[in-house]
Give the backbone structure.
Amino acid sequence: MNNNKTILIIGASGGIGYEITKHFFMKNRSILICSKNRKSIMQTKNRLIKKYPEKNKILKYSTLDISNNNSINRIFKKIKKELLEIETVINCAGIIDPVGEFKKINYESWVKNINVNFLGPVYFYKKLLIYFSKTKTRKNIIQFSGGGATKAIQNLSAYSVSKTAMVRFIESLAMENNNNQIYFNAIAPGIIKTNMTKKILNYGK
């Protein structure tokens, strides 16, 4: 990775996203952190800057609702306006709800999961590939897929479907861009102690 270029981290305010942000922040990388919740992303920035105020200039933040096309359009306008050169994108954003038997869960919640975990990122990557096509240097895309992609999971049908679809999508994009200096990775980190995994473990207790 080039230290003069920017890493865009989506879902940076919680769990895995925060730890990744902290890792690159400590390495003095230029970072643009995003989250749907403005208060949460500001708290993430302030939490890091409070400890290391001299690093203030390397950490930028913005709201981004990955399930909303208008919000996605705005983040690309921000990147263009601020002349940021994005080299790496790491998407940690995702939701697990609804949890429960399919016939009993709320259908709108099921669709929301598909939008957040799959359809929204699909639109984002469409815009990102157009943006990346303007330069020929190496680019990196890291998508967290989660355990939902490894096998069917009872009572987590939306999560399993959306994450499985995302893995196949990333694999397809990797094949399409094999000669374009754009490298795709879908990562399933296993069980990590986050609020999301707590919800799974607590289900049915």
Remarks:
- The beta strands are 6-10, 30-35, 59-63, 86-91, 139-144, 182-187.
- The chain is about 45% helix and 15% strand.
